Amino acid sequence: xxxxxxxxxxxxxxxxxxxxxxxxxxxxxxxxxxxxxxxxxxxxxxxxxxxxxxxxxxxxxxxxxxxxxxxxxxxxxxxxxxxxxxxxxxxx
Length: 92
Description:
Elements lengths: L1 H9 L13 H11 L5 H27 L11 H7 L8
């Protein structure tokens, strides 16, 4: 089971924001390519393993970004403020 999950995990897609969960169509395609006949509990185990994998990944990612505030290194000057927020009459 673990080897199956690792193989599916390596081929998983992402959406630009993070990893996608394994889809039933991905698992179905993989089983047809490997000529594996999954039992219901096999599928349940793979889906459960996938849920745990993603939960741990997102917890780790959240912990890493939690300590890093997003702050510009450039000081906010009056000229920069005016460039970012021009008066209503001078907007183009």
